[in-house]
Design a protein that fits this description.
The protein has 7 helices and no strands. The model has no long low-confidence stretch (mean pLDDT 91).
């Protein structure tokens, strides 16, 4: 999926706006993922998955950092996330559909905390960006 100049601008604006709360949003999105899609817990059987868990928040912080990294390198998302793609494809072997599910959960969390931010155009741009991130993360599965 190709991001237009408008999409890139919209995504950068979203991440500029959510800035300091990205870590918390990442944790909340991950927690939402586990509740809405229980099969995704498979990869985290060693985690305390209870509400407010420090482990979930910690991994959510990593998710948010990866999304921020991708947004900061929006013209080379594949390069920015190459090591993460290798990790998930070769070592962790995460089901590729989970990235799409997590992207949707992240959209929901952004909408909850920043409802005025997600106009239809911005929502579409952020969705395209999250799909692109998911595609990049699964590219090395082939």
């Amino acid at each position: 999926m190709v991001l237009s100049a408008t999409d890139k601008s919209n995504v950068k604006a979203v991440f500029a706006k959510i800035g300091g709360t990205a870590d918390a949003l990442g944790g909340e999105a991950l927690e939402r993922l586990f509740v809405a899609h229980p099969t995704t817990k498979t990869y985290f059987s060693h985690f305390d998955l209870s509400h407010g868990s420090a482990q979930v928040k910690g991994h959510g912080k990593k998710v948010a950092a990866a999304l921020v990294e991708a947004a900061n390198n929006i013209d080379d998302i594949a390069g920015a996330l190459s090591k993460l793609s290798d990790l998930h494809a070769q070592k962790l072997r995460v089901d590729p559909v989970n990235f799409k599910l997590l992207g949707h959960c992240f959209l929901v969390v952004v909408a909850i905390h920043h409802p005025g931010l997600l106009t239809p155009e911005v929502h579409a741009s952020l969705d395209k960006f999250l799909c692109t991130v998911g595609t990049v993360l699964t590219a090395k599965y082939r």
